[in-house]
């Protein structure tokens, strides 16, 4: 039986070793709130952490940075990210990227590149637990008619918004998205919301390509059976205006560079391979611009919350699965092995 100062949490102890344990309840520091978690998504970066392949995450650690919940404890003069007054009982999602606001990158508007940045679930205990403590200014209130699961999608959606924004595309432009995992699908959803209609999505799994079609992709390519570069160049007469690589493997990065139109822009958001050789002479001769996309700014996160509140991204059974927190270790193992049925797994409390 838990005491008032204890809670249940998934604790990562080392490569492929995650256990449900009883741990101490977090104590919010000044300016922080205590959130009773409701829904927590499993991120691809956490899978690499689970395997021991992510330098940001060191065991023992409570991961979890895509979450929603309800404020359980707050100070008397608490202010949320949108400027509203924080209150106990308010339903929220939170921006897990904590920045200093004072360094040169923050002052220049690149808060996602803050030199002192910390990530909830990596540098400090995360949300795969009954409760999590975060700064109040990181919290975004969500309406009662938005489900806990939908609210937990704000963080990965904000990542996708950043990538699409950096692609600098407009209605009438063509876009290739490599990878139909959660980030790739969210890039598709946001690009569609901007009025982009020519969107080609490639992946190796037919089930994911089917979802991309349902979400409005103008065409899909199975990378196992089709030459992606050749097909894209045929469909878009020399290449897509922009390409987003949401995989990050050496092969997909090479595809992205070859599939974009001369003078086009490639956005790398996937983090699969640490290093990849690139065709430098080709890049120079074709004037291809490569842009990295990391996390999101405060504005991007706010845009994600607004999009979710408007019902433009809905959690549906064909691509998302909910499981109890206690099944977290099995969920991580299945996602790593590629045997999970769903593209995205959300862990629920209770």
UniProtKB/TrEMBL annotation:
SUPFAM superfamilies: GroES-like, NAD(P)-binding Rossmann-fold domains. Keywords: Metal-binding, Oxidoreductase, Zinc. Residues 14-347 form the Enoyl reductase (ER) domain. Pfam families: ADH_N, ADH_zinc_N. It comes from the Bacteria. CDD domains: sugar_DH. PANTHER family: L-THREONINE 3-DEHYDROGENASE (PTHR43401:SF2). This is Galactitol-1-phosphate 5-dehydrogenase. The lineage of its organism: Bacteria, Bacillati, Chloroflexota, Ktedonobacteria, Ktedonobacterales.
């Amino acid at each position: 039986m838990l005491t008032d100062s204890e809670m249940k949490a998934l604790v990562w102890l080392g490569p492929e070793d995650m256990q449900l344990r009883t741990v101490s309840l977090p104590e919010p520091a000044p300016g922080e709130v205590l959130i009773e978690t409701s829904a927590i998504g499993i991120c691809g970066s956490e899978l690499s952490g689970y395997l021991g392949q992510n330098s940001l995450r060191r065991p023992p650690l409570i991961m979890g940075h895509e979450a929603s919940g309800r404020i359980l404890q707050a100070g008397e003069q608490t202010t949320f990210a949108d400027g509203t007054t924080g209150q106990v009982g308010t339903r929220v999602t939170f921006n897990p990227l904590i920045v200093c606001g004072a360094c040169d990158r923050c002052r220049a508007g690149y808060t996602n590149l803050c030199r002192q940045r910390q990530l909830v679930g990596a540098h400090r205990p995360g949300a795969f637990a009954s409760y999590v403590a975060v700064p109040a200014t990181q919290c975004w209130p969500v309406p009662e008619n938005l489900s806990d699961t939908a609210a937990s999608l704000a963080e990965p959606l904000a990542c996708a918004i950043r990538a699409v924004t950096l692609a600098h595309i407009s209605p009438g432009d063509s876009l290739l998205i490599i990878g139909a995992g959660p980030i790739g699908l969210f890039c598709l959803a946001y690009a569609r919301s901007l009025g982009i209609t020519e969107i080609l999505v490639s992946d190796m799994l037919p089930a994911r390509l089917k979802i991309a079609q349902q979400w409005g992709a103008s065409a899909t390519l199975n990378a196992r059976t089709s030459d992606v570069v050749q097909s894209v160049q045929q469909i878009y007469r020399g290449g897509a205006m922009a390409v987003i690589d949401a995989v990050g493997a050496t092969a997909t990065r090479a595809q992205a560079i070859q599939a974009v139109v001369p003078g086009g822009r490639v956005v790398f958001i996937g983090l699969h391979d640490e290093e990849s050789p690139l065709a430098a002479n080709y890049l120079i001769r074709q004037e291809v611009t490569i842009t990295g996309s990391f996390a999101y700014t405060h504005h991007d996160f706010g845009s994600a919350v607004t999009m979710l509140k408007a019902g433009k991204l809905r959690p549906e059974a064909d691509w998302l699965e909910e499981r109890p927190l206690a099944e977290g270790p099995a969920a991580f193992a299945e996602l790593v092995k590629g045997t999970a049925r769903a593209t995205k797994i959300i862990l629920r409390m209770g």
